Every structure is written in structure tokens, then in C-alpha cells.
Amino acid sequence: MVKTIEWVDGKVRMLDQTLLPREVKYIDCTDYGMVAEAIKKLRIRGAPAIGIAAAMGIALGAQEIRANDFTGFLNELETVFNTLLATRPTAVNIQWAVERIRKFLLERKAEPVDKLKALLIEEGNKVLQEDIEINRAIGKWGARFIREGDTVITHCNAGSLATGGYGTATGPIRVAVEQGKNIQVIADETRPVLQGCRLTAWELMQDNIPVTLITDNTAGALLRKGEINLAIVGTDRTVANGDVANKIGTYSLAVLCRENNVPFYVAAPLSSIDFSIPTGELIPIEERGSEEVTHIFDCNIAPEGVKVRNLAFDVTPAKYITGIITEKGVFRPEDLHKLNEKGVDLDKFMLKANNEDRH
Question: Which residues lie closer than 8 Å to 356 by C-beta, 6 or more apart?
Fold first, then answer.
């Protein structure tokens, strides 16, 4: 698998995903401002990956701080926090990373500032390694719902490129292939930035996983013809009632799956679940620039001056979701809150990979 992000020689090195699949190029971020710009410009994207980038960006920013006392150090670091938080408002993983790092520092406030700077580098790398293990766990749980001969559709890119490695939505697909199951993947193109076309299809081909690319508006026809057995997508923010914010077009695919009695799963690491928000109606939805719609790479495909709406995400209500695949197991959306409660026997609420729970 291609490496998405890593810490190398005091820099944050990341794959520039805006150039794929035409060019495989890595960029070295030497300060936190470059990391923030890379997140904002989609050079790195996907909720888990930008959470990792945020943690490493904080570590990078910390190295520049001159304060010698903890209070001064943390105060200056707030500028780094706020800069990163402002980049992508819908994805909760940046907020998760900031809160994790702040808590990490407060628990070590007695340590010298120089040591804290070194520890933040270690913590950024730890976030990366944990993410890879989480994705593998998601893959193990989700693969139980993929059967021999299945065709799986996925939307946008929730693969290794969107994470530290392995992928969330592609995790179950990878595990199923490793188990020897003969399966096929359908990747829709995912307008306007074509992450399904440029990224998902590309990375699955790199690993010799059978994939077929379709236009976004082909999904309904294939579902109606019975050529798709299940859908697995990622999430940028899942809230307490099980509503899911993901790449624009996810809601449409979920409705089509329900209409055609095809199970629809969401792969959601705990870091992307925001229990502080009760329903999806309260999730902030990012709107991006018009050129993502009017241009493909540098080519203008739209009439000059046309008015554009470019919502980056939509919200899929919990009622359309068969199950949410986490590193702790697979749960119905209405049972997701159990993951945030102490002393709960999660086994009682897990979905089982049988005919009843698959639909």
C-alpha cells in the first residue's frame, strides 16, 4: 500500500493526492502552516488522514515555539490548534486530534518544554500507528458481512489514501480478499473532485483488487438490476443518533440501496464519532469553491460565469444505514450510543453476519 503520511527528518511528508493518478509526488511540510494549507487544498484528505496530519502539524508547530514555561507554550500552541481547526469544518477528526493533544499536554504539564516538544512528535507517530491498527480491526469486523461472490459498491475514497493505511471502508474489502473471497468492487467516480475515480480505483488497482469504475448516476441502474450486493462507505462525522455526514452523494446512494433492498454500511472509527451532537441536522456542512465543479484539473468544462453550489458533504439519516462498522464491532445506528456508555456489554448489541442482520 502507498504511504499517505509520515514524519521524516523533522518534516511531515504526505502524498499530494490532488495530482493522482497522473503523478505520484510527495511534499514535505516544514511548518504547521503548510500542513494546514495541505488539508484545506485536499492534498491530504479523508477524516482519519487529516486527523493524523493535524496531530503531526501540532508537533511541527510546537518545535517553533520559544516559550520556556508550560503556560506560555500552551498559549502559543493555541494558534496552531485554531489554524488547523479552521481548515475543514465538517470532519470531526481534526477536533478529535486537537483535543487529544491538549489533554496529552495537560497531563504532562510538569515536564520541561523541550521534552514536551519531543513527546508531541512521538504522539503524532502514535496516532498514525493506532489508525492503521484501527482500520485493520474495522476490516476484520466488516469482512464478516461480505460473502463469496459479492459485489461491493463504495463512494468517494475511504481507503488507505484517506487514512494512515489500509482504509476504513476498504478495510473489510481488503480483509475479504485476504481471506480468499472472490469479490468485486464498484467505485463510483464521486464528482466533483473525482476521489472515487482518481483515488479509490487507483489504490485498489495497485493492490490487484478487482475494481470497476462507474459514473455516479450509474449506481441506481446497477442496484435495480441486482448487480450490487452491499455498499460500504466512510464517514467524516457520525453523531449520537447514528446520522452520518460523508462525501456529497452518500445520501443519494443510501436511498437507492434502501429502495433496492441492498444493505448499506458505514465504516466509522471511534475518532470520527461525535457524541456531543445529537442529530445530523446540526453537523456543519462545508461548501467549497466553484472551480471544483466548473473545472476538471485545469480544464474548464462549464459556461463562463455560471452560478455554482458546491456542498462537500451531505447527511445520511440513520434510518437508511444497516450497520456502522467500528473497531469495537458492528452496530445498528440506534445502538451506537452504547459505545459511549460505561459498563455496557457490547456483545449484546452487535450485529451478526447472518441474513437478518445483513438487511
Answer: none
